[in-house]
Amino acid sequence: MDKLSRLLKEIKTLEVIGDTDKNIVSLESDSRKATKEGMFVAVRGVTTDGHKYIPVVASNHVGAIVCEELPASLQKGITYIRVADSSVALGQLASAWHDHPSSKLKLVGVTGTNGKTTTATLLYEMARLEGYKAGLLSTVCNYIEGRAVPATHTTPDPLTLNALLAEMAEAGCDYAFMEVSSHAAEQHRIAGLTFAGGVFSNLTRDHLDYHHTVDNYMRAKKKFFDMLPPEAFALINADDKSGRFMVQNTKARVLTYSLRTDADFRGRIVETRLDGTLLQLNGKDVEVLFTGRFNAYNLTAVYGASVLTGFDPGEVLVNMSRLVPVAGRFQTFRSPKGVTAIVDYAHTPDALVNVLDTIREIVGPDGRITTVVGAGGDRDHGKRPQMAQESACRSDRLVLTADNPRSEDPAAIIADMKAGLSESELRRTLVIADRREAIRTAILTASEGEVVLVAGKGHETYQETNGVRHHFDDREEVRDALAQL
Length: 485
Hints:
Structural class: alpha/beta
Helix content: 25-40%
Number of strands: 26
Strand order of the largest sheet: 11-10-9-12-8-13-14-15-16-17-18
Radius of gyration: 24 Å
């Protein structure tokens, strides 16, 4: 319960009609959950507009309604609050409702196309290795200290987000690390939060089904850095051309990390293998259990953000060697018969290039690589042929299959992918729509020393077809297939 007058101090109002000296018992943006004497915030969403449900929640005798447009008829006893952007107001109100939990933690956000999950998760693990209590908000799973809380979105809605942060503060967490998706920045899910720092990994084509253009996608991510306070840090990848754009208007202290040029935090790959890398960080060597240039970038960012967060640089270097890969991110499985399978979440053209170039660098020009890959349904169609083409030119054999078809026909998705292949590439491509059979075939027909990359789903434990999620785990399928060799 909270006083409406106190809550209103947290937002910029254009118009207030009705009594503000009243108690509010709940805060909701879902009309189905709006309660008597509660506050309903009408948000314009992707698929529906909360404003059309105002008459319904009004009939339930809510205490207050926050909206961008007042309804034609105002009901007696309800306080109507008009704002310029109700999604911003929701974030600010959610933070106030939970007594500003982000201000009680050192909250660090990570954004970018690839590497968000790995970087945020490793920062969480680093904090715990340093002896602190910490929380994590990520695509794979949320954690409150050591307690797992299932994740449904990369960045939750403002009410869920602030409730989780409040639980972290209540549990005594000193730090919290979170992925900040482009959707979250665009939809103001992070409005009202206080960040101690932000990390930018990289930017390539993704989510154009929502943002429509790469420029819109880039500007959505930039909004996160625009909101950082002066006392925060903004750590950017100096090797990515979008890095400097991200911090053009930030008030935060800007620092850089790089594998190619002078930077505040400099990484260099000394030696790489399928099971690890000898990495140099600011001139000091450390052996890590990660492989690939993309992971070297992630780890350099983790090192930099850890130091900027306040951890001792020497202790950070020691703990770098204790960090383990995130589930479904370049996760390696080996058979006694000499076949290696790698499960990775790579689901964009650039991510596939990174993973396959890493494998090729390790196995050499004579090593054999098979890639099993599909593309998600109801998403960006334009990247499908690119994903197939990048996979084919870096693999000896390609197996096109289903990913999460959602409401689309898998055959139509695969046809889009095949459009990116040349005649010679098509001759060494198999089409097996059944993902289980595709993985099984790729592994059982692999030769000794061959590497089979199973890309696209990584940590996911489901496959979504016709709107229904069925249990499916690439890692389980890989283990079963390798056991049959």
